[in-house]
Amino acid sequence: MAHLVCPRCQRTNPGEATFCHFDGAPLRQAVGPPANQLPHEFVFPSGRRCRTFDDLVQGCQYEWEEARDLLSKGVFSSYLASIGRTDLARVAQEGQTQADPDIALHNFVNSLPANQVQGPRLDLTPRRLMLGTLRAGDSRQVRLTITNQGKGLLQGKLTVAEGGQWLHVEGVGGPGSNGQCPLKTAREQQVLLRVETRGLPAPQTYSARLQVITNGGIVEVPVRLDLASVPFTKAPFQGVTTPRELAEQMRAQPKAAVPLLESGEVERWFTANGWAYPVQGPPARGVAAVQQFFEGMGLSRPPEVELSANEIRFTLNYPETARGQVTLRTAAKKWVYAQVTSDAPWLRVLTPNPSGPQQAVITFEADSAAMPPGRTHQASLRIEANAGQKLTLRVLAEVNQPPGSPSRRLFRTEPAVPSTAAPAPRVGLELPLPASWVRPVVVLALLGFLYRALLALPADLFARVLMAPPGPASPGSFGFWLAAPAVESGFIKYFTLATFWLGAVGGLVLLTRRGSRWTDPFSGLIAGAVAGLMASATFACLMPVLDTLPRLFWKGLDPLVGTTSLAAPAWLWTPLWLGVAMGFWILQGAAAGLLLRLCGRPGLRLIVWAGWPFQWFFRLCGLQRAAAFFALH
């Protein structure tokens, strides 16, 4: 019988021996087949061949993604059933029903009867993330280290299982998809986590949980964050950390709280701390803003409010404007406030945000120039008062058309409808000659004369004559008006300086009448000045073009004037030039009026728009008939 060699000490033993005579190690086991050998080999899609369960475990660990697909498709369960291992086939079938395929594969690999296969082994640093205290709105980046303490390739994923609204996985090279970061490393991998506290209510403690599932183990990492509120920074309430504490200090100093509420400083503080601001819509004015804040916080019961009248009627002679007012009041000794809007363009709200102690006056204006005459119109003021109380004021306006008004010949309206329904009228144009054609031509011709007459002082007398640089022709002479103003003459600069202030005055007047804040007039002054500067510079560039025809006519007079132009004084030719220019602007206005009349209603709207400044001026002076002439209604 052949001798046997001990696998441990490599000494020779008799053939019939079962154990080594030297160290007692078993001799027969060393020559027999492995106990975990597979009846027939398993082949991975990559070509890896597995002859033992150890090989199969190693194949799953090194080719984790392929093994995960094979398990979910039932390939492992079919193979194990074919070799008679129904117990393992049952485990593989249970893995097919697992929601997470990585966990299913991890459990399947652990159930295989492998002997001494050392695969990848997961380790994390740190195991717990204690982020400490952060201010509301702050952000922080945290680094997590994934370590493979075994052999092979560690594969899997890191997922934010809880707290995904403020804890995000960025991973290597960018944020992970759907809160996940893929893991694949032989030694070490860095994972970046970003903490975003913007929008989280403070003060509060938040918890999150990270789940790491790999072929080297499954680990959960708890995360904790203490979120502190941002203190209020504006005097005299600096250092306040809660809304209730702020309300208590506001009760003691209500006047100091008014500018902070009106400017939105308190609302921005609420947003920075992730709190819902209790006031919806724009803030009330004055001390009413404090009352509004208390009602929104639930610290004060809103008073019941009512209107002094539910309906107001006007009778207007076109194109008059009438003002009305109604009082919003309460019996409680509290402030009232409201937001007022109109549902019709002819009904303008002059006090959109009224407020006051126990009562507030709502002022509005009915403009008959915005309504077709000869009928009764109806509109409503919608009022949202304390704590969202909704009220409605109905306004009826009956517009009488003056007898013999030119607009009766230019426009026709449908017969008046009872004022209960107040449907919008259908307005059509009658085309009997010559009334409907002559008036637009006359209006635009008159506008050409008026505009050129107004431009004479800033453009001709100031920018051209008084500020003219030295040249071959003396300022104001006949030859001086033969040429258009040159760019280097400074005409554009001086004309702009002489006229841009009109925009500033207009903006100041408009926002003083329509605005509700003390800063609105200043804003209107600045915005109007900028708009006036742009409009003046643009018109200064266009004016030489508009004066082309009168200048050609002026050049035609040169042979007739001859040497007379040299002997006549300069002051004589300037009035003559202005007369020629105004005459041609009248002719150009008439031609433009005829062309716009041919365009129908859009053209008439342009004529009305061009005459709006004079319409406003005459109405301001009380000349209603003159204003109606330019209105074309």
What does this structure look like?
The protein is of the alpha+beta class. The chain has 21 helices and 24 strands. β1 (4-5) and β2 (12-13) form a beta hairpin. α1 (53-62) crosses α2, α2 packs across α5 and α3 (75-82) runs antiparallel to α4. The chain is elongated. The N and C termini lie far apart (131 Å). Residues 172-177 and 404-434 have low confidence and may be disordered.
Outline:
The protein has 633 residues and is α+β, with helices and mostly antiparallel strands. The protein is built from 21 helices and 24 strands.
Task: List the SSEs and their pairings.
Blueprint: E1 4-5, E2 12-13, E3 37-43, E4 49-52, H1 53-62, H2 64-72, H3 75-82, H4 86-96, H5 101-111, E5 122-125, E6 129-135, E7 139-148, E8 154-162, E9 167-169, E10 180-185, E11 188-196, E12 204-214, E13 217-228, H6 243-252, H7 254-262, H8 265-272, H9 288-297, E14 305-307, E15 311-317, E16 321-330, E17 335-342, E18 347-349, E19 355-357, E20 359-367, E21 375-385, E22 390-400, H10 406-410, E23 411-413, E24 427-429, H11 435-466, H12 491-499, H13 501-514, H14 520-546, H15 548-556, H16 558-561, H17 564-567, H18 570-598, H19 601-610, H20 612-620, H21 624-631
Parallel strand pairs: 6-13, 15-22
Antiparallel strand pairs: 1-2, 3-4, 5-7, 7-11, 8-10, 8-12, 9-11, 12-13, 14-16, 16-20, 17-19, 17-21, 18-20, 21-22, 23-24
Helix pairs in contact: 1-2, 2-5, 3-4, 4-5, 6-7, 6-9, 7-9, 11-12, 11-18, 12-14, 13-14, 15-18, 18-19, 20-21
